[in-house]
Amino acid sequence: MSQRANYYEEELDDADDLADVGLNLTIGNYGQGGLYEDGMPRIDEATLLAMQQHVAQQVAFAQIPDVVKRFIIQFNNAIVNNNLQEITACYENGWNKLTEQFYPKIEWPEAEIIAPLVNDNPVFLILYRELYYRHIYSRLSPNVDDRFHSYENSCELFNYLLNSDGPVQLTLPDQWLWDIIDEFIYQFQSFSLWRSKAKAKTEDELMMLATEAESTGGSQLWSCYSVLNVLYSLVQKSRINECLAGVKEGKTEAEIQQIAGEYGSKPLYRMLGYFSLIGLLRVHVLLGDFTLALKVMDNIELNQKAFFTRVTACHVATYYYVGFSYMALRRYNDAIRTFVSILNFIGRMRQYHTRSYQYDQIHKTAERMYALFAICNCLSPSKLDEQILSNAKERYADQIAKMSLPFTATTPPNSTTPAVENAPEEKPAPATGALAAYSELFLFACPKFITANAPPYNDTEALAAYIADVPEEPAVRHLSLFLDDIRARAEVPTLRSYLKLYTSLDASKLAGFLERDEEELVQLMMVMKTASRSVTRMNNEGTLLDGQVITTTDLDFVINENMVHVVESTINRKYGGWFVRNTEHAQRVYDALKASPLPITKTTAAGGVEGEPKPTVQEKETKPRAANAPWGASTRKVEFAA
Amino acid sequence: MSSSATKSWLKPAERPEIIDTLINGVDRYNPSNVGILEDYLYHQARTNEYDCLANLAILKLYQFNPDLYNVDVVVNILLKALTATPLPDFNLCMALLSERPGGPSGDDVDAEHDPNVLLPILSSLSRNLAECRFPAFWMLYRDDSLTHLRENFTVEVVGFEDGIREVVVKAVKSTFTKIGVARLGSYLDLSGDALEEFISAVGWTLDQNTGTVSIPPNPDNTIQATVVRESITLPQLAKLLAHAQSVA
């Protein structure tokens, strides 16, 4: 431990010089001190340990398996030579294979131990440490030093990219660039969650956090400002927003290069800028700012041709956070459409990606999106995609059954006086079956919300008060806001089941069914009406936040004084999809038969034709409206007067 | 079809250029701009304008810089958001008012300005509106325990009560074609001449004999049964059929 601490002591001196250049050009630090104002206690006996350390390093070096040494040399050469193919091979195969073989449960050799192998190439060592810490976060559990040092390394990396003289001559695969941004935010999120748990800290950790908080004007380490700074700096350097706007306007590639400037015209910066936008989407959601989250996506189109589809993990993350933001904005139809689109995509690519090391993560996100889809679909039933619906039912049958149950939201109904909330502090009624199911799915599937600020580690008294009365976890707060909306809609399913039976009935009679008085009933009807109208983005027009009000239910009603009139829209059975699916099935059977080694084999291979109907389906499915009629049929509305 | 329901929410026509530039750029994170945004909020309160995104930008600054937290501003923002119901504005604001209301130092504030007292009250008011329990809203709002809220805050927000009545009008006109005048009065917290004036101001008509108010048809209170039928034309199947032919 002391070895590593000492090593970073030396490293930090260099870092301080870099900090002078300033990563802070974008949004400034606002009096919160430099990025590298790290309060690491200096260990004076470091010099005494130097000799021992040297020996220890040599021992550690000798212990590195030869194949790993060769790999590191090869990896370094690939990076020095900017050989993208080689880098990709090392990154995607070599590293993972050797991790499995030699470091499944232990750390890779520390950077300073392998430094002699790569002639102390600083760029390689930064990238190496990026991988080194990522490995610790994903396979082992990071300790407080890892958390501090991984932040420092991230800063070094971004400083190198942003504050060198002009754009750096480095080429990295898209996947790695995404992983850098993704991991940066993940470590930020992980640190914030760890930091907020003040109770379970050791003396050492408390001391480090306290010193850190003392540093010039407040904690900078993994602070919201420093993280946003990096992301916005990358966005601005690459001029990615201007480029995307240019693409939208139909500018030529040459014009785009012109707009992009010396940084943005390099794939490295362009991709980093682009991924930073997705990163901002994620950070804003984590902090509970759902409008701002969708706002940063203003220039990004959500479709299968978008940039982000180049990296599957990025593609999936984008839809997850966009879908969740729509949910928070109570735009359940938009959320459903978003989830359906990506879940279909994941379903299709499942067969190709099972071996990928990212598959686990994608699979987990998909499960969470099925849960969110189930929630949205209970709140705003839609028949957008039968397949996804039945997949969701397969997974969360219990919860869906409970969520569809009628439940009483507010204080038990009092049949004589309208329910009046006199006590403002009144706690919500205890969760019933339905609310419990909503809560369960929400907490399982929501992002790992974080708090923006640290507990007061530098003030023992305040910290004690904090620990004595720990604030609600952010996820719990967001849940209770979400449940407010659910509670308001609590009676909608019940009302609906009665209304379906009538074309008109007296309000007092309906009230009798629900064991409410008429006034309460009328208020519930207004809630139902409001709940059946929703803002939705139409035909991908405008930005993600744009939309129009649509009716989201097939059952509509109106009250004429005391008489409720009901009409229902019917959707006839759809044969088209069935026809196409069976045609495709027949084709597959036919192809399989032709391909099987029967006595009479024809030379014309069947494989060529097999793929053809499929692209048709994919292409059409990008238009969600037509999803249930994949070959492009439209549904026509035939209207009758009531 | 082309008119967007979110247009004025995303960018109200009254929003000054300087605010627009501010909240759409990275300068929105600069704590020294909080004053500009707060002034704009008080301007909204005085002139009965509303700009949700600009107000969220204030709350964002409070989230990152707890020492900026100003309870008066927060209450004003939330009152404004109440009048936007059934849009989710109130909860969007609450989502940013994270952690501990009032920030780290919550001891030296008096009860009338204690966010720990005020915010739950506002949440109750918001729930009543979201659940369309309008009489309950007014009863709570007029309650003696909320005197300080009315005297210190809502009085400063020009058109607050009319803003709430706007929320009522939205709910009523989409649900009813006719409504009893007494019921409407209890929703609007109005009676007698004031109620009649209000009814004619929104273009509804009161029938004194039957005691009912007629609400003119609008897309939401005009209900229609529809049948959605699938319609497939031959050209749409052309690809499939052509393919079938080529295989055979």
TrEMBL record, chain A:
Basic and acidic residues composition bias: residue spans: 611-624
The organism's place on the tree of life at top rank: Eukaryota
GO MF annotation, one: translation initiation factor activity
Pfam families (UniProt xref): Paf67 (PF10255)
Location of the PCI domain: 367-573
A biological process term (GO) from this entry: formation of cytoplasmic translation initiation complex
Major location category of this protein: cytoplasm
InterPro entries in UniProt: eIF3l (IPR019382), PCI_dom (IPR000717)
Subcellular location(s) of the protein: Cytoplasm
Transmembrane parts of this sequence: 268-287, 307-329
Positions of region (Disordered): 603-642
Keywords of this entry: Cytoplasm, Initiation factor, Membrane, Protein biosynthesis, Transmembrane, Transmembrane helix
Protein's job: Component of the eukaryotic translation initiation factor 3 (eIF-3) complex, which is involved in protein synthesis of a specialized repertoire of mRNAs and, together with other initiation factors, stimulates binding of mRNA and methionyl-tRNAi to the 40S ribosome. The eIF-3 complex specifically targets and initiates translation of a subset of mRNAs involved in cell proliferation.
Family under the similarity heading: Belongs to the eIF-3 subunit L family.
Subunit: Component of the eukaryotic translation initiation factor 3 (eIF-3) complex.
Name this protein carries in UniProt: Eukaryotic translation initiation factor 3 subunit L
Protein's organism: Serendipita vermifera MAFF 305830
TrEMBL record, chain B:
Keyword match GTP-binding: no
GO biological-process terms attached to the record: formation of cytoplasmic translation initiation complex; regulation of translational initiation
Alphabetical list of Gene3D superfamilies matching this protein: ARM repeat, domain 1 (1.25.40.250), Winged helix-like DNA-binding domain superfamily/Winged helix DNA-binding domain (1.10.10.10)
Gene Ontology CC entries for this record: eukaryotic 43S preinitiation complex; eukaryotic 48S preinitiation complex; eukaryotic translation initiation factor 3 complex
Location in the cell: Cytoplasm
Main localization of the protein described in the UniProt heading: cytoplasm
Record InterPro entries: ARM-type_fold, CSN8_PSD8_EIF3K, eIF3k, PCI_dom, Transl_init_fac_sub12_N_euk, WH-like_DNA-bd_sf, WH_DNA-bd_sf
UniProt keywords, alphabetically: Cytoplasm, Initiation factor, Protein biosynthesis
The UniProt record lists the keyword Cytoplasm: yes
Segments forming domain PCI: 50-246
Entry's transmembrane regions: none
Gene Ontology terms for molecular function: ribosome binding; RNA binding; translation initiation factor activity
UniProt cross-references to SUPFAM superfamilies, sorted A to Z: ARM repeat, Winged helix' DNA-binding domain
Lineage: superkingdom: Eukaryota
Biological function: Component of the eukaryotic translation initiation factor 3 (eIF-3) complex, which is involved in protein synthesis of a specialized repertoire of mRNAs and, together with other initiation factors, stimulates binding of mRNA and methionyl-tRNAi to the 40S ribosome. The eIF-3 complex specifically targets and initiates translation of a subset of mRNAs involved in cell proliferation.
Subunit structure: Component of the eukaryotic translation initiation factor 3 (eIF-3) complex.
The family this protein is said to belong to: Belongs to the eIF-3 subunit K family.
Protein name as annotated: Eukaryotic translation initiation factor 3 subunit K
